[in-house]
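Colleagues,

Please find the record for the two-part complex below.
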Amino acid sequence: MIEIRGLQHRYGKALALDVPRLSIDASTVLVGHNGAGKSTLLLSLAGLLVASEGVITIGGDPAGSPAARRRVSFVPDSPALFDDLTLADQMRYVARLHGGRKAEPAEAANELVELLDAGELLDRLPSAMSKGQRQKASLLVATARPCSVLLADEPTTGLDAESRDALLRGFAHLERASGVIIVSSTHDVELIAATPGRLRLSGGRLTDDAEAGPGSIDPVVASSPAPTPASWPDSETRHQPAEAGPSPSRWRSKSRFSED
Amino acid sequence: MLALDAPDGSRLGDDLYSLYLAAIAWLVIPMYASAVAQVLPSDIADFSRLVDVAAALAMGAPIWFGYRGGPFLVNRAVVLHELGSPLDPRGVLAPRLARQAVAYAALAGLAANALTAMGDPEEFGYRLAARNSFVAAVAVLAAVLQTPGWLVAWKGIGRRRPWPAVAANLAGTGAVAAMVAADRSLGSPAGLAALAMAVALGAASAWSVLGRVPVPHLWRRATALDEMRSAALSFDFQRVLVSLRRAVDQTEAHRSPIRLARPWMPRALWRYLASVERGWNTRLGQVVAGAVAAALVARADPANGVVALALAAAGMVVGFELASPVASTAGQVWFGVHYPRRSAPVLRGQVATATVIAVVIAAAALGWLAGSEPVGTALASTGLFAFGTLAAAVQGRLGSPDLAWLADKLGTMVAPVLWIRALAGPILCLALTVVVSHGWLRPDGYTLWPALTLAVVAATVVVACYPLEKTLP
């Protein structure tokens, strides 16, 4: 689905991304330290950044082309919402942009509303939402229209443990029910463990463990110092050791808050 | 045209910012009206010629504006969802371009009308004002329509450049420039035909490239806008809070050794002087402003409006330079008026819009001035000097602690408070300027000069030294 050849991007003279060759055909999580090039890669895939060199194709079309952008839905690191529309209106509007005047939000998005317990947000304007709620809203709007690839830049940032687990369930549902390939960047151990494929970036380059088996925990991330309880109240949940196992069912089984 | 139903994402903050600048203009520009009137030509033919030349120059501006980013200031939701949809990008961008082109054209017409109104009312009638306004409006309309073509030419993706659009733009601009170079009036039938051709070619140019406007560029601008707002609404306040809390709890910075300080120097003052916050260009500007102010005070006639303008600007510089080190020496936190990094590209457009609004307001102010008694220019210039100095001190010291307190207490009520803070200085200046302009402090001649200057210095010192952080919760 996603093919990358000779991709390089520089900010000034600094090399931010150097990916000679890569194919992504299944949901994948990008991991790496700050400045590793995760967001740059996602923006390039979304066609929102023109790489200095190289070619990206999505479903055979160059990234950024109208055809590719219609296949790709993007959830940026900070929510991009229409200020003057309620969440329900935004979802309907985006659905109609893609499906015509009478189109309604995709079924997957409606199910995601249930999974994320976001029903009460539907009638709210973004200004009446918290940061975490805006993050949920951003994801719901992005999934309101049909897409083949969902790109999410640190989607769990700002979410509480319960919402994060709900998001993981939502991702699993999207992948299973709609066949959407989800490519996300994160520092979240749970999300890393729950995603079948993982790419590790360092200094803009894919490192040796880029082809690590799905479901395994990246040693660097897993062993990173745990935040203090005071600064990160839900750290207990975030830093549970993850079990091995690539099955998408892990999307469901992560949460101690899970209803099932 | 589904896109027409979309919200444009405008924010109250932008409007308030424009109003803020307009309020400042309303305070200041009437004072300078006489100076502007002095430099305008008094002959009708010369006046129209001036407008024609300005119109021709305005039509060259899109080359630069296209390079700087073009006319579209869309938000990230529009870029993501509308431009990422099957909709023809023309359907998304054309209404926005049309709205901007018409708005700028209307403002240009008003500005030209205001400029014409500054001329001799005995000589300059309605017909002349209408002619000048129309020429200015049409020229600016064509210019805005040309901008997308230049944007795609400069920032387009790939090697293929929109040469037909560039050629159309150059042809339109060339036609108008040729008329002006040939000393033909743009108000004549031939001139109007040239303007009409420029508009038509600009519209064709825009239509041909709107589907190719580089989305990454729009995303980058939209992100910069969001970052600026986010920075203005959070980072700025957090910085203020942190600074104040540090000042309240323990002034460690005052006790730490300072690299270049000498024992005989007041330490805090030296720290200010050696600060790395200001670059050489700022320092150079301060030196030039100081030298100009000194020369004006020594040699120039403050009755001249241009001198008054320079004095007010120098007063601002003096005010900041005075309040900041005094506050530092007194161990107080000082807050300069600043905007976050990378906000310049976004603010520039707002400043341009607000400037045009200010010109319109100036026209109304001119009418008021014409019907009133002449303002004592010398006193006004003194008032302007005081305005600048005290305003800088107020802006640097007041407001921010209150803002910090409110930001801490009220959370989401931060944005309106920002504007209250920003308006605090000008509101005080309004009172001061009114007092000076109405001569309520009027002495004979220039005898007020030293006394008022001293009073301003004293007030600035008091304001700078008052421990405002005590207002913190």
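Chain B touches chain A at residues 2, 5-7, 9, 11, 75-87, 157, 214-216, 219, 226, 230 (CB under 8 Å).

Comments are welcome before we finalize the supplementary table.
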